[in-house]
Fold this protein.
Amino acid sequence: MPPEQTTSEARVDATVDGITEPSGMLLFCLAYSKASAQTLFKDWGGALAKAGITIVPVEHPERVCPTIDTLDAATDALVRVLSLYPPSTRYALYGHSYGALLAYAVARQLSDLGRPPIRLFVGAFSSPAGANPLMASMTMPCFEALHYSSVPRALSRMDALLLQGALGQLYFERTSTERIIEGALAAFHANSAGGFATPITALRGTDDPVVSASEMEAWAALTAGTFECVPFEGDHFFLHKAQSQPAMLELIAARLGARP
């Protein structure tokens, strides 16, 4: 590590599973909020290696550095680490659920720095440009504690300031990852493609109870590049081996130029 790094910065570097000279395509993989990337994506490497794709599990920065409590901070931390790879590195990003939101933010910032990914894969997270039922479901336990039967309509877009006022101390008792998501969605609402032209492949579970097909298709508004929304059999966690993992890996390999 560079000598000027703080302990917190060094810990964030550990969110990426090794930084080595890449020999082919890298796929940085971000898990859903309560999962370890190392564990969740451990079975992906063998299949995609046959296609010349190396899996790089990426832990959420707030898992190893609790002082990171905003999406901007988490994004900056990952961009700093991923920027350590050589400029010639060919890479793509896959993010599942909250990991999709973080992957999108990282992809946009790296694109602004002149280092865009080959493709962005987002799974099981409603487009941040609109209302987010998944975030509503994550917030619901707080409202239930206040004797609400549902999230108030006025708060359905999960504006962080409104949530803080409605939930009081309960708002601050939520996990850092949940606070990051809540605080980010309002900023992303109505975001346009802007200068972002990376192709996006959105993946959804056909039986996902919290993210609909239309909410996944709305990701199309966030890129000036090509877009597709691909359904897979399964629920919110269709990426697991017992559901549609083999079919997902086949799609990913095909979109990145090879087949496992």
Summary: Confidence is low (pLDDT under 50) at residues 1-12, 153-173, 185-193.
